[in-house]
Design a protein that fits this description.
The complex is a heterodimer of chains A (about 325) and B (about 160). Chain A is of the alpha+beta class and about 325 residues long. Chain A has twelve helices and twelve strands. The chains are: A alpha+beta (about 325), B alpha+beta (about 160). The complex binds flavin-adenine dinucleotide, iron/sulfur cluster and FE2/S2 (inorganic) cluster (2 copies).
């Protein structure tokens, strides 16, 4: 790991001035479960690390009429154990319950989870100076791309590794950002960015901005949610494919479906075609299958990851049927 | 070169001061500077749990924590859980059930299981298995470990 200086931030307002214009100047650290590994692998080489855990009051879960507000530094363990989350937002509760291990969830924060960097093995290896690290090529193209994206057209083929992000996106959550010019709010749907927009990053955050809160609107009545995740190992493992589904069903008819796939694209991937297909339709097995087909209509798998298309279809069918029953 | 940082912490109930570079993990500090070699380096990336310690009441992987983060914290390592003359019930049960072979994962498992029993003195087998998902063992096949933990529960 390259050495760096370490600063304990004391207020949100102070943070932008401790950060710099480039990600190589300074980065913030929350739980450190992703960042420390990234620095060990020289994927992140900041000159300064700004610890956010020393800021008071960024660790909370508050409920009001509008919904739930979760402070950026709330740990995944605290999200998992919160009764409002488990009762009203099962899709988020279930997603967090299958993230990593108890010890990682004890350290990892909710904001850190949606901001974690890619797990592409070329990105995480010092030996591969790929596009995402400022290099000239993507090694997944023509390389081993078993765990890479089936949606999007490059030039980087990472998958977004977060399980919480698809769940939050399915719930219509908003990310609260603080920068040199103050606070701002961005819908999760507008927060993540595809590689063609900025190959080096996965979201709109600038080097001197931080996330302070994630707010989740109260789901409408008759709306139900669930999270499904397929992984190679039943204990700690990232998703091969995951699905966060939130659906409003009245008398067997789908009024609204929110379906977000994880592990398949550089960002949490909203299955818009499937959502559109389901709206206003009575749910039957055949229609759940059609929705599944619609979800993968635009898939363009790489040589080693065609299996993800089948998993994605199965998850969509399974969730649509389960939430309609 | 970054300056070394002065860290004041409490380890197994004793006040400890050390100097470290910001890039040193807590695991490196414990093993290389403080002579607490009970915590092991397995994967060095958060997967195996061999480096587990309890920090301010929460189980963590010390390879993912920076040494500088220990400032002001209370840390329990395997060295603070029982002694050769006075084994912790978990240690006793691991021996009785032969829940180890090479032993490299054992300190992590004991620390992890202790954190579980501290919070939930009477876990079900499912709860034990779910909790121990963050600890890897390449030798035993886990069943003996799970049985040892179940046998160490209060009232078991
Ligand atoms: C062994 C292992 C298994 C894992 N398995 C899974 C899994 O199955 N599913 C899953 O979803 N994740 C998994 N993860 C990833 C883990 O969930 C993330 O590492 C964790 O959530 C990151 O949170 P953190 O607080 O530790 O972030 P940090 O490591 O502190 O930060 C992560 C990144 O986000 C930035 N950041 C953090 N907080 C903020 C903020 N408030 N504002 C701006 N930037 C910020 C940091 O600069 C850094 O780039 C796994 C990790 C490990 C080590
Ligand atoms: S997929 Fe992205 S991160 Fe992986 S090698 Fe290609 S450019 Fe790099
Ligand atoms: S050495 Fe820390 S988790 Fe493996
Ligand atoms: S006893 Fe050898 S790894 Fe567990």
């Amino acid at each position: 790991m390259r050495n760096f200086s370490y600063v304990n931030a004391t207020s949100i307002e102070q943070v932008p001035s401790l950060l710099g214009r480039s990600w190589d100047d300074a980065v913030v650290m929350a739980g450190g479960t992703d960042l420390v590994g990234e620095m060990k692998d020289y994927a992140a080489v900041p000159k300064r690390v700004v610890n956010l855990k020393s800021i008071e009051g960024l660790d909370y879960i508050r409920q009001d009429d509008a919904g739930l507000r979760i402070g950026a530094l709330t740990t995944l363990t605290d999200v998992l154990e919160n009764s409002a989350v488990s009762q009203e937002l099962p899709v988020l509760h279930q997603a967090v319950s299958v993230i990593a291990s108890p010890q990682i969830r004890n350290m990892a924060t909710l904001a850190g989870n949606i901001l974690q960097r890619p797990r592409c093995w070329y990105y995480r290896s010092e030996d591969f100076p790929c596009l995402k690290k400022g290099g000239a090529r993507c090694y997944a193209v023509g390389g081993v791309n078993t765990y890479h994206a089936i949606f999007g057209s490059g030039p980087s083929y990472i998958v977004h590794p977060s399980d919480a992000a698809p769940a939050l996106m399915a719930l219509g959550a908003t990310v609260h950002v603080h920068g040199p010019r103050g606070g701002d709010e961005v819908l999760m749907d507008d927060f993540f960015t595809m590689p063609e927009m900025n190959i080096r990053r996965e979201n709109i955050l600038r080097p001197n901005e931080i996330v302070t809160e994630i707010s989740i609107p109260k789901p409408e009545a008759n709306s139900k949610g669930m999270f499904l995740k397929v992984r190679e190992r039943e204990s700690i493992d990232f998703a091969l494919v995951s699905l966060a589904a939130q659906m409003t069903v009245v008398n067997g008819t789908c009024e609204r479906a929110s379906l977000v796939l994880g592990g398949v694209a550089p960002i949490p991937w909203r299955a818009v075609e499937a959502e559109d297909y389901l709206r206003g339709r009575r749910i039957t097995e055949a229609r759940a299958e059609s929705a599944a087909e619609a979800a993968v209509e635009d898939a363009a798998p790489m040589p080693h990851n065609g299996y993800k298309v089948e998993i994605a279809k199965n998850l969509v069918k399974q969730a649509v049927q389960a939430l309609a029953s | 070169m970054s300056k070394k940082v002065h860290v004041q912490t409490t380890i197994n109930g004793e006040a400890v001061d050390f100097l470290c570079e910001p890039r040193n993990s807590l695991l490196e500090v414990l093993r290389d500077d403080l002579d607490h070699t009970g915590a092991k380096e397995g994967c060095n990336n958060g997967n195996c749990g061999a480096c587990n310690v309890i920090m301010d009441g929460r189980l963590v992987n010390s390879c993912c924590v920076l040494g500088v983060e220990a400032d002001g914290c209370e840390i329990t390592t395997i060295e603070g859980i029982g002694s050769a003359a006075n084994l912790h019930p978990l240690q006793q049960k691991f021996l009785e059930h032969a829940a180890l072979q090479c032993g490299i994962c054992t300190p992590g498992f004991i620390v992890s299981a202790k954190a579980l029993l501290d919070e939930n003195p009477n876990p079900t087998e499912d709860e034990v298995r779910y909790w121990l998902a963050g600890n890897l063992c390449r030798c035993t096949g886990y069943d003996k470990i799970v049985r040892a933990v179940l046998d160490a529960r209060n009232g078991a």
